[in-house]
Design a protein that fits this description.
With 341 residues, the protein is of the alpha/beta class. The chain is 43% helix and 15% strand. The protein has 14 helices and 10 strands. The strands form 3 sheets. It has a 5-stranded mixed sheet with strand order 7-6-8-5-9. It has a 3-stranded antiparallel sheet with strand order 3-10-4, with helices on both faces. The chain has a two-stranded parallel ribbon with strand order 1-2.
C-alpha cells in the first residue's frame, strides 16, 4: 500500500458500501408527485394556465367544476377549435393542455424536447372508432373495400386503419382516404360523401345519438390504445414543478370523481362543451378510469408504438418515450380522499 493511502476505520469500511448502495438505489427511484417538495404558499399561489379542448379527456370536467388546489391558481381557457388551442400552447400562452398520444410525440419532436408529458391516462380504445351510416350495408371493415375512409393520417387512427387492413387481408390501395376534421368532417359523413368515418368521443357518441350511425370497429379492434397525455412546456415544468405536481393530483382526483358521479358530470359538462348529457355519459362510461403509471413496462410499450408510427410516416423523426414521458409526477399517483367530494 502507498504511504499516501488513507486507512479508514473498520466501522466506516463496513458502513460506506451500505450507504453508497442506498444512495444509488435512491437515485434509481424516480420521484413522484408525493415526493416532490410542496413549496406552495396559499397566500401567494402559483398560476397555471390550462388549455381545455372540446374533445379528448378530463380537462373539460376540471374546467366545468373550476377545480382549484391550495397554493395554485388554475386559469382555464376553453378552445372549441383544437387547432387554436395547439397554436396557443405552442406560442407559450398555455402552461398545460391535453392532446393525443401521437400529438404529444409530434410536439416533443417539433420543439426539440421542450414539450413533455407530465401525466397520461390509461388507454381509451373505446373512445375511438369507425362509423358507418345507419342504412349502410356495411357490416364489417372488409365491406368498405373500394370505399372512402375519412380520418387524419397524422393521428394514431392511421395505425388503426393499417391494422384493420392487414387483418382483413387487404391493402391500402383498396381504399380511398379523405382527410378532414371538425365540422367539415361531420358534414361529409352525414351527407353521405364518405362511407366510413373514423373519429373520437364525444363527437362519435354524439353522431351515433343524432343520426343512428353504427359503430362497426373501435380501438380494441384496431389495436390502438388511444392515450390522452397532459403536456407542458419544459420551462413550465422546471419553474412551476410543485404547482404541476399539485395539478396532476387534482387531475387524478377529478377522474375518480367523474367515474363515481357520471350523472352530475354530464349535467355540468353538457352546457360547457355543447354535447348532450347522454353522449357525455356514453363517452366517459367507456373512457379511461384513471391515470397511467409511467414505468418501465409502459415506456417499452410506448417505444414500440413510436417506432411503428415512425415506420408508417406518422412521425417524421424518432422519438424516445423515456424522454417524452416524465416519471416525476405519476410514478405511483393515486386519487386522494378529495376524490370523494
Amino acid at each position: 500500500m502507498s504511504s499516501s493511502a488513507i486507512t479508514l476505520p473498520r466501522a466506516l469500511r463496513v458502513l460506506l458500501p451500505i450507504a453508497l448502495a442506498a444512495a444509488l438505489t435512491a437515485c434509481d427511484k424516480a420521484p413522484t408527485a408525493a415526493s416532490v417538495a410542496p413549496a406552495l404558499d396559499p397566500a401567494h399561489p402559483v398560476t397555471l394556465v390550462v388549455g381545455v379542448p372540446r374533445n379528448f379527456g378530463y380537462l373539460s370536467t376540471l374546467w366545468a367544476r373550476d377545480v382549484q388546489t391550495p397554493g395554485v391558481k388554475i386559469e382555464y381557457k376553453y378552445f372549441p377549435n383544437f387547432v387554436d388551442m395547439l397554436t396557443a400552447f405552442n406560442g407559450g400562452q398555455l402552461d398545460i393542455t391535453e392532446i393525443g398520444d401521437v400529438g404529444a410525440a409530434q410536439s416533443f419532436a417539433a420543439s426539440k424536447g421542450k414539450v413533455q408529458v407530465v401525466a397520461v391516462t390509461q388507454p381509451n380504445p373505446g373512445n375511438t372508432g369507425l362509423l358507418v351510416a345507419k342504412d349502410s350495408p356495411t357490416q364489417k371493415f372488409a365491406d368498405l373495400k373500394g370505399k372512402q375512409l375519412l380520418f387524419l393520417k397524422s393521428t394514431n387512427t392511421y395505425l388503426g386503419v393499417k391494422h384493420l387492413i392487414a387483418d382483413a387481408g387487404l391493402t391500402e390501395a383498396d381504399f380511398k382516404y379523405v382527410e378532414l376534421a371538425g365540422p367539415a368532417a361531420v358534414k361529409a359523413f352525414q351527407t353521405g360523401q364518405v362511407e366510413g368515418y373514423l373519429t373520437i368521443d364525444p363527437n362519435m357518441a354524439d353522431i351515433v345519438e343524432k343520426t343512428g350511425a353504427r359503430l362497426i370497429s373501435d380501438g380494441n379492434d384496431q389495436r390502438i390504445q388511444n392515450l390522452y397525455p397532459y403536456v407542458a412546456q419544459k420551462k413550465v415544468i422546471e419553474e412551476k414543478h410543485a404547482a404541476v405536481a399539485a395539478f396532476v393530483q387534482v387531475l387524478a382526483d377529478t377522474i375518480a370523481w367523474a367515474q363515481a358521479h357520471p350523472d352530475e358530470q354530464a349535467r355540468i359538462l353538457a352546457p360547457k362543451i355543447q354535447f348532450s348529457e347522454s353522449a357525455i355519459r356514453t363517452t366517459f362510461g367507456r373512457a379511461a378510469k384513471g391515470l397511467q403509471p409511467v414505468d418501465a413496462a409502459f415506456l417499452k410499450a410506448q417505444q414500440a408504438n413510436f417506432d411503428e408510427l415512425l415506420a408508417a410516416g406518422v412521425l417524421k423523426q424518432p422519438v424516445a418515450a423515456s424522454e417524452l414521458y416524465l416519471t416525476d409526477f405519476v410514478g405511483d399517483i393515486t386519487p386522494s380522499s378529495a376524490a370523494a367530494n
